[in-house]
Write a structure and sequence with these properties.
heterodimer, A: Rossmann fold, 6 strands, B: mainly alpha, 8 helices, extended
């Protein structure tokens, strides 16, 4: 029996890998969808703030991530863009990460096409610029000095929707979808605290705990944390069967499987300890 | 001179930025804005430095047939392919660069990051033990957050998401804030030490 506990405690990791893979694949193959109730979470605060913005407002949407975190952040980007477009809010996109500019373009252009929104009138993608926090401070004094052209090299002066925009204070809200540094923290420190522009954001689930501090102090108006945050936003804006909501079933089952492994590992550990095998 | 010139530049630039923050008027505003633009230009130059370094490291690896050198041609070819398609066709949608990015770079990067789930599961199974009361507390919190982060938590008991929000908003925030305040004070003190020339390790041994 002691041998069994030892074997259980030293379970081949390939078995764990296979079970995790199955826990993700089976809900996807069978198209399982779990209901996603949204409680008093920071994602609701984010939705409420965006929903209360008046029509015609300008929102800066910063795509501060790359394809590695795309499964969590791209559904957020698409849901937020859809919400902003439906509210007739102008979107100025940009990126603190080089590959974020392409991902932002994909999110904005696909939603714009489906809703009949016009590039340069309803939305624009300024692209990527290096410099992180320092660049954000410069945006606070002049946007066109940092972005003389948009991502496709169209001059600032030739873009109609940018005529009313001079610096960060021209925006009613800045939303950063962030996978790390530079990202939300730089926007809070440089744009929010220094220029008084409200900051909202979305981040990967692993980086959400750090950002809760900014919610409590009111330095952020809301936060979408991980795929759950994206699913919450999809639910709140009324998307049925969105990709984030569909991702909740595999994620739920994978979490349960991981927890079961932890329980099995602990049971084996305590039984071995009882037998004097582990100190 | 190797010591004095970098220290003088650091002191001048640092003082201008500090004065620009506290006195946002001329001439500090003008000087501060210029320095911010210089920083962006220098940071852009660092990208080229990174490219040169990438090519140097991998071409050397191939030349000397170092360990895992067979992956280096893939890196170089992949880099050159993206560079050439970007330069010739631009980065606009439906162009070769965009096609390669959305259909190769994006799914491959996402796949690499997704592997994390497998390693997290394996590591949690081996290392997450309720060996004392502190570890048990951490384990219980982790279970509540893992369940509260997915709809199945609310399906089991509707108070689990509330417990998750409480854990994240109160104990987590207290701990995170302590870490952040400590780190921020460290950044301020190190920056001041660099501006006033007390901290010189960044000179790379020139002192």
């Amino acid at each position: 029996m002691a041998d069994f506990y030892e074997k259980l405690g030293n379970l081949d990791r390939r078995i764990i890998f296979v079970l995790i893979a199955l826990s993700v694949m089976i809900p996807i193959i069978f198209n399982m969808v779990f209901p996603n109730p949204v409680g008093a979470e920071p994602s609701r605060d984010m939705f409420d703030y965006v929903d209360a913005l008046p029509e015609g407002s300008n929102v800066l949407l910063s795509f501060d991530y790359d394809p590695s975190t795309m499964p969590e952040l791209q559904p957020m980007a698409e849901a937020i863009v859809l919400h902003l477009f439906k509210k007739n809010i102008n979107i100025v996109g940009m990126a603190l990460w080089p590959q974020g500019a392409s991902l932002g373009q994909d999110a904005m252009s696909s939603m714009a096409d489906s809703l009949g929104k016009v590039q340069f009138e309803d939305w624009v993608n300024l692209g990527y610029k290096t410099g992180g926090g320092v660049m954000i401070v410069r945006l606070g004094s002049s946007m066109s000095a940092v972005f003389p052209t948009d991502r496709d090299n169209v001059p600032w002066s030739e873009i109609p929707m940018l005529r009313s925009i001079t610096n960060l204070e021209s925006f009613s809200l800045i939303i950063s979808l962030s996978a790390g540094d530079p990202g939300i923290i730089q926007w809070v420190m440089m744009a929010g605290d220094r220029f008084g522009v409200p900051i909202g954001g979305g981040c990967t689930a692993v980086s959400a705990p750090t950002l809760y501090t900014y919610l409590q102090t009111g330095q952020m108006v809301g936060l979408l944390g991980g795929l759950k945050g994206a699913a919450d936003y999809e639910t709140l804006i009324g998307i049925v069967g969105g990709q984030a909501v569909r991702g909740m079933a595999p994620q739920s089952i994978a979490h349960v499987v991981i927890m079961l492994f932890i329980i099995i590992g602990n049971v084996a550990y305590f039984l071995q300890r009882k037998k004097g095998g582990v100190k | 001179m190797r010591l004095v010139i970098p220290l003088a530049i650091t002191f001048t630039a640092g003082m201008i930025m500090i004065l620009n923050f506290f006195v946002p008027h001329q001439p500090f505003k003008f000087l501060g804005e210029n320095l911010q633009e210089w920083y962006m230009i220098v940071a852009s130059g660092a990208i080229f430095l990174g490219v040169m370094n990438l090519m140097h490291v991998h071409s050397r690896k191939i030349r000397l047939k170092q360990k895992n050198w067979k992956y280096s041609p893939v890196t170089i070819i992949g880099f050159l392919l993206m560079l050439v398609t970007g330069l010739i066709y631009g980065v606009a949608e439906n162009m070769p660069f965009d096609y390669l990015f959305m259909n190769m770079v994006a799914p491959m990067s996402a796949t690499m990051f997704s592997l994390l789930a497998f390693f997290v599961a394996s590591a949690a199974f081996r290392a997450f033990r309720a060996s004392n009361w502190r570890a048990t507390l951490l384990l219980t919190s982790a279970f509540l957050v893992m369940l509260g982060q997915v709809p199945i938590g609310a399906m089991i008991w509707d108070k689990i998401p509330l417990a998750k929000v409480w854990l994240m908003s109160i104990p987590n925030t207290a701990g995170q804030r302590a870490v952040m305040i400590g780190a921020a004070m460290g950044v301020v003190s190190t920056s001041l030490r660099m501006i006033f020339g007390i901290e010189r390790s960044w000179l790379g041994g020139a002192d």
